[in-house]
Amino acid sequence: MERDEILALYDRALREHAAPDGPGARVERAGRVVRQIAAHGWNGVLWSALDERGADEAIREQIARFTALGHDFEWKLHGHDRPGDLGARLTAAGFRAEPTETLMIGEIERLDLFTGLPDGVRLVEATDAAGVDLAVAVHERAFGTDGSALRHHLLDRLAADPGTAAAVVALAGDEPVSAARLELVPGTPFAGLWGGGTVEAWRGRGLYRALVAHRARVAAAHGRRYLQVDASPMSRPVLERLGFLALTTTTPYLYEQPGR
């Protein structure tokens, strides 16, 4: 498939016709906006098809909806979204832009998945609460942020689908040093790669690449054709070497409830 065809498929399958990304989440379609509302997971706008005349009103409507629920939320803006000044409109409405990442898609059968692990390191799949704790420990050490929301999300996934892998963790002996998630998107050819992180002392040793390769094989075993990643500037070169294609940018615009 050509770049434009893959991007159009991504927009249809993962944005315009998105399904909830976990238990306790629901997707609402309001006019030309698709949003997700979740108790413990991600809250935000997945897709919009706006023009200059209706954009500001649609922004106000989303603020009102999430404010009534008491949720902070994210408007996930893609580089090809319209109108072209939507980012500026979101900023004017009180949103804060987070760092821009690159949307990358890899066709699994075309990726270079030959990889190894450093001596003494093994990969384990988080299929129970103990495994979730390992993944969250990596997240907190790698990113320096609280992992409570991630723990809730992963435990909810395990409760809804027991026996599946909520995450993959690299262990050096018994120490968790890298972890990442795989989201198999039901009813689509896509699987999403999320949350890849490695503790500082273990960076640059091929763990991120190994986790991508492992998750790609799992996704292929479940019948998925494409992997989707929102890549940071650090991970983009690794993914390009594996065969991923850069399609567009993604920028999270965050709206926090007043007074928080």
Descriptive terms for the model:
Aminopeptidase; acyltransferase activity, transferring groups other than amino-acyl groups; 12 strands; Acyl_CoA_acyltransferase; single chain; 2 domains; GNAT family N-acetyltransferase; alpha+beta; GNAT_dom; 12-stranded mixed beta sheet
Gist of the model:
By secondary structure, this protein is of the alpha+beta class. 33% of the residues lie in helices and 31% in strands.
Describe the 3D structure.
Residues 121-260 form the N-acetyltransferase domain. One of its GO terms (molecular function) is acyltransferase activity, transferring groups other than amino-acyl groups. By secondary structure, the chain is α+β, with helices and mostly antiparallel strands. The chain has two domains: 3-101 and 250-255, Aminopeptidase, CATH 3.40.630; 108-248, Gcn5-related N-acetyltransferase (GNAT) (Aminopeptidase). The protein contains seven helices and twelve strands. It has helices spanning 3-16, 55-69, 86-92, 129-143, 148-160, 207-221, 236-242; strands at residues 25-30, 33-38, 44-48, 73-78, 96-97, 101-107, 121-126, 167-172, 175-184, 190-198, 226-231, 245-255. Strands 1, 2, 3, 4, 5, 6, 7, 8, 9, 10, 11 and 12 form a twelve-stranded mixed beta sheet that branches. A hairpin with a 2-residue loop joins β1 and β2 (33-38). The longest helix is centred in the first third of the chain and has 15 residues, at 55-69. The radius of gyration is 18 Å and the shape is globular. The mean pLDDT is 94.
